[in-house]
């Protein structure tokens, strides 16, 4: 028969709680710093700091957040547990053209690319064409060339991810552009265009600027990483 016993454990105080969770607390600050860097915004130009999620009530998290913004006062006018719902309601109003309020009628809500999109170059290196956080829809291009003399076909493996080496990113698909005129390596100019529509459908096209020959591939959302996968990258 199982026997229960009482173990003498000291009560958990604030310093101990903060020490035990220090890594987790610091982990909440890293996305904030990354967003500022991606947006190329000076933290001094941030107007309001809104707390989102019940865990932001923890004093240590608030303290760390204030440190990032040099002691700027946090905006606590919105219930952290309801902040996401507020945002969802505003977005729903905008999407259904029901935002009659002056404060919302000029809002423009854009989806962005969660992970950079690009192609694999020689050596397995990722060449980014569409940077992370680019607004959707978007179209961006980059010129590539051949890696060997007299090369008549070039393959374009398409990836998403933030790692330098493609083996650590997610392969979305690939296609080949053939019929190139034999020439010394580095001579042909191959224009690679990424066209991402509002539904997340990606079309990648490569065109030989000399002959006009084209090849392309269309990639649906089903092959892209899920929100949970992106969170783990």
UniProtKB/TrEMBL annotation:
UniProt key word Chaperone: yes
Name of the protein in its database record: Hsp70-like protein
Similarity field: Belongs to the heat shock protein 70 family.
Keyword Nucleotide-binding: yes
Coiled-coil regions listed: none
Pfam families the record matches: HSP70
GO molecular function, one term: ATP-dependent protein folding chaperone
PROSITE patterns (UniProt xref): HSP70_3
Keywords from the named record: ATP-binding, Chaperone, Nucleotide-binding
């Amino acid at each position: 028969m199982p026997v229960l016993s009482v173990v003498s454990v000291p009560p958990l105080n604030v310093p101990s709680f903060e020490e035990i969770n220090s890594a987790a607390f610091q982990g909440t600050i890293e996305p904030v710093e990354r967003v500022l860097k991606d947006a190329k915004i000076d933290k001094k130009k941030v107007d309001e700091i809104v707390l989102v999620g019940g865990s932001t009530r923890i004093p240590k998290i608030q303290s760390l957040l204030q440190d990032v913004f040099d002691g700027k006062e946090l905006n606590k006018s919105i219930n952290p547990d309801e902040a996401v719902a507020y945002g969802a309601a505003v977005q729903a109003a905008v999407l259904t053209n029901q935002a009659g309020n002056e404060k919302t009628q000029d809002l423009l809500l854009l989806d962005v690319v969660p992970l950079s999109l690009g192609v694999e170059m020689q050596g397995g290196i990722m060449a980014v064409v569409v940077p992370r956080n680019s607004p959707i829809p978007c179209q961006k291009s980059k010129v590539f060339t051949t890696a060997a003399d007299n090369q008549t076909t070039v393959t374009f493996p398409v990836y998403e991810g933030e790692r330098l080496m493609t083996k650590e990113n997610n392969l979305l698909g690939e296609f080949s552009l053939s019929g190139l005129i034999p020439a010394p390596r580095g001579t042909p100019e191959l224009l690679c265009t990424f066209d991402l529509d509002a539904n997340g459908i990606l079309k990648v096209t490569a065109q030989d600027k000399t002959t006009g020959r084209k090849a392309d591939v269309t990639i649906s959302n089903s092959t892209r990483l899920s929100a949970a996968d992106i969170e783990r990258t």
